Amino acid sequence: MTALLREVEATEPQGFSVAPFAANKRLQVVTLTAETIAAFDQAIAEWPLQALEYKPFLRYAVADKLDALTGYSLGKFLNATMRDRDTAAFLLQYEGQPEVTEGELRTEFEIKLSTAISHIIGLPNLDAMYGKYYARFTVLNDDNSDSYLRQAHRRMELHNDGTYVNERTDYVLMQKLGEANMEGGESLLLHMDDWADLDKFYRHPLAKQDIVWGAPKSKNVETKVKHPIFFEEDKNGKPHMLFIDQFAEPQNMAEGIYLYEMGESIEADENFFRVRLPVGSMLVVQNHCWLHGRDKFVSHPELSRELLRQRGHFTK
Ligand SMILES: [Fe+2]
């Protein structure tokens, strides 16, 4: 057991509870109490979301309000969880309701909550697709976009985020803002230490060779970047990875086949698990040791799902 895990166990949660996720005990389910949510709602009521967008320091003030309500035990727990490779992921949900229970103001509350969580663990990068520190997007039944992000009827393969940007993407936060007529579409997760073929691909001669990565037009990222799949090791010498099937641009047959076989192996691995996210909840994963994806939906003409994401780097 790592020192960090001992630290997590020594931290007595105040204003929230913790339980391991049923299908995979690495994932920590964090539930804020109704009292914490009501007090947080009140504490941040003076700041509309727009104020947080205009004044970056307010995002830290919001984060501090939430952490203070838990006697700073929430920040301790979340940071220790994210830095322990054996866990490195949490699903955060809450009991009770904020004062405004529906409509755009309710959604603003959810965004303020994910802003608090994101700033407790780090600093979100500018999301080039949306032009803010977060991105909101909708998945509908019909979609003509140029990547699989918003396409409902197919599985979005397991991948890491941040493959085609130069900024570090230590964590990914995915929040469910709204949903109607949805069946299927669960989040998919696979920890790379549970991937049966990890060693085969990590020991491969191409494991640490640069690969070229580009992005489709909608991402608003013009330049290409180069980095290996296994781009660094953590403090214990275990690999961190950056892989996504759609945006790798192999330059020769050997790279093409290595990437193809890696994609096939990850998709065939049986150790992935599904997570259903209730509206208002969020999933946060350490991006370099967790692969994430999304299962396909059942078609419905009125199907809709609104999501928010924040991707950032650790600051502690
Ligand atoms: Fe992603």
From TrEMBL:
Classification via Pfam families: CsiD
Keyword Iron belongs to the record: yes
Domain of life of the native organism: Bacteria
GO MF assignments: 2-oxoglutarate-dependent dioxygenase activity; iron ion binding; oxidoreductase activity, acting on paired donors, with incorporation or reduction of molecular oxygen, with 2-oxoglutarate as one donor, and the other dehydrogenated
Keyword annotations: Dioxygenase, Iron, Metal-binding, Oxidoreductase
Listed InterPro entries: GlaH, TauD-like_sf
Keyword Iron: yes
Protein name per its UniProtKB record: Carbon starvation induced protein CsiD
